[in-house]
Backbone:
């Protein structure tokens, strides 16, 4: 059976999730070191709505090392702590210094129950799986730690490339490595980053785990993806 059929998957919110995401990471760190601050997700979340690379996908950044990437992110987290709690810059930076280790702790991540059975069945039907995600540079290692590495052929991560979905260059990098992927499907939970981004480069897309009236293909669970990619073309 040909292996030239590609499914390109988003990761966070599609294949796995860290409950509470970045807000939870920072809250946990602050609560552990300074419980007296009474930090809550409600206080912190409004201050984490900007500053991450994927908040400005129109900006293409130069590829950098993981250390450089995290050096650029920690001030964003520290600034959020400052604004939510009133502590000074030095203290805020101290409180978020452990963010990298906390975020990458595989024990805090949850792979959705339908992921492995779906990816295995699709693989057995001849599909090759690729991940394209706006994520931290260590995404490939995280995927391995979560027990999905044997199902994923390649990982394209914005933390390594400097290009965020829905920028066309994020998708074109996948096509450069796997030309047949353009005729495959992008599958993710974001209408903007995954569906519209894919359509802009001529790729079909499926919106999963969320809904949008303009999504031409929508699957509440990954199990239903099997029928969509195996059935009539959905443009």
Residues:
């Amino acid at each position: 059976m040909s292996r030239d059929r590609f499914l390109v998957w988003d990761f966070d919110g599609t294949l796995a999730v860290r409950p509470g995401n970045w807000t939870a990471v920072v809250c946990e760190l602050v609560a552990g070191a300074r419980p007296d601050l009474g930090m809550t997700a409600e206080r912190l979340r409004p201050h984490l709505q900007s500053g991450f690379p994927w908040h400005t996908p129109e900006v293409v950044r130069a590829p950098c090392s993981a250390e450089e990437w995290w050096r650029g992110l920690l001030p964003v987290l520290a600034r959020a702590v400052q604004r939510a709690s009133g502590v000074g810059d030095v203290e805020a930076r101290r409180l978020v210094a452990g963010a990298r280790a906390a975020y990458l702790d595989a024990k805090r991540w949850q792979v959705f129950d339908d992921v492995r059975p779906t990816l295995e069945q699709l693989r057995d039907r001849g599909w090759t799986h690729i991940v394209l995600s706006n994520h931290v540079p260590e995404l490939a290692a995280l995927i391995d730690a979560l027990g999905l590495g044997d199902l994923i052929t390649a990982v394209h991560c914005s933390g390594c490339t400097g290009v965020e979905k829905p920028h066309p260059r994020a998708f074109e990098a996948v096509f450069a490595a796997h030309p047949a992927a353009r005729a495959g499907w992008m599958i993710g939970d974001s209408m903007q980053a995954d569906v519209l981004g894919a359509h802009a480069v001529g790729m079909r897309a499926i919106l999963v785990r969320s809904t949008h009236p303009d999504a031409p293909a929508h699957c509440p669970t990954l199990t239903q993806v099997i029928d969509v990619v195996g059935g009539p073309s959905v443009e």
Observations:
- Residues 47 and 80 are 5 Å apart (CA to CA).
